[in-house]
Design a protein that fits this description.
- This protein is of the alpha+beta class.
- The chain contains 9 helices and 6 strands, in the order βββαββααβαααααα.
- The chain has 3 domains: 91 residues, Ribosomal Protein S5, domain 2; 43 residues, no CATH class; 144 residues, Four Helix Bundle (Hemerythrin (Met), subunit A) (Up-down Bundle), CATH 1.20.120.
- Helix 5 runs antiparallel to helix 7.
- The N and C termini lie close together (10 Å).
Length: 296
């Protein structure tokens, strides 16, 4: 099955007075890379959430945003240190007596350090909302999985069309290759005949040996055979819809091998038409490689 590595999923799950919101997005990446933005009370769930998401996706750079509204697990608590506040007040009264002044500003008292502290919900309180948090994450995963599958199907269609075009060009190149040897033999014979100018006899054996050496050095049969094999495997991976293992790396490797074969053909071809076809095929293989980078 062909899956894209680009996708987005979100979910909102409510239970009583608490609401969990999960947003998940992904882009292409060589490996599985996940970053999470979790409320502090839910940091204890980090590994569990990571394993949950990894069970859906094997590759990609993913980012999870998780928020919780309402409920005891989402509401910070304000604590007042009344003993310390009483000490501040007593000190203020003593200061009034010593200085002979009266009156104090309550707003100033509120800014004194240590009287008020904000306590985040603890892990035990957060566990009350654990079920809806995990459910929101799973639902966001399923939504993004569906989006990646749909986009993957579009990529598969495009890649098959590109692979078919490359296969047709490789077939045309294979049909043309023998002409290179015939053209070389004819040109070589004409040049030698012109050079000798009827003053010497043409050494037919020497000529045939030169042609054989050129033919051996410029032969691209093996490269074309490997190219056809790579294309066959490439299309097999694309057409095998029952395959559950990600195939992006395999397809990427095949495009690298195709490019390698075309480089070799270009260096051995020694013909303008072959060079033109090699440039065209390398351009198409590069388009193939760019699309493959988005496949899981």
């Amino acid at each position: 099955m062909i899956n894209s590595m680009t996708g987005y999923g979100s979910a909102v799950i409510s239970d009583n007075d608490a609401t969990a919101r999960a947003e998940l997005k992904s882009v292409n990446h060589r490996f599985f890379d996940l970053s999470m933005n979790l409320p502090r009370p839910f940091l204890y769930l980090e590994n569990r959430i990571r394993n949950e998401i990894h069970s859906f996706f094997q590759r990609g750079s993913l980012t999870l945003y998780l928020t919780l509204d309402g409920g005891a697990a989402a509401e910070p608590k304000l604590n007042t240190d009344w003993a310390l506040a009483d000490q501040y007040l007593q000190a203020a009264k003593d200061l009034e007596k010593r200085s002979g002044t009266s009156g104090w500003d309550l707003s100033a008292v509120l800014t004194l350090p240590g009287i008020f502290t904000v306590r985040e919900p603890d892990t035990q309180t957060a566990k009350q909302a654990e079920a809806i948090v995990l459910k929101a994450v799973r639902q966001a995963c399923r939504q993004m999985q569906e989006m990646r599958r749909n986009e993957g199907e579009q990529l598969r269609t495009d890649l098959i069309a590109k692979a078919d075009f490359i296969a047709n060009e490789v077939g045309a190149l294979e049909a043309y290759a023998p002409e290179v040897h015939r053209h070389y033999a004819r040109r070589l014979r004409e040049h030698i005949t012109e050079f000798l100018a009827d003053s010497h006899e043409l050494d037919e054996d020497r000529l045939m040996n030169e042609i054989a050496v050129f033919t051996d050095k410029s032969a691209i049969d093996e490269e074309l055979t490997r190219m056809k094999s790579h294309l066959a495997q490439f299309r097999l991976f694309l057409s095998n819809s029952s395959e559950s293992v990600p195939v992006g790396r395999k397809l990427d490797f095949l495009t690298q091998e195709m490019n390698r074969e075309m480089n070799t053909i270009g260096s051995k071809g020694n013909d303008a038409e072959i060079s033109r076809k090699v440039v065209l095929l390398k351009s198409e293989i590069e388009k193939l490689r760019e699309q493959v980078q988005n496949i899981e």
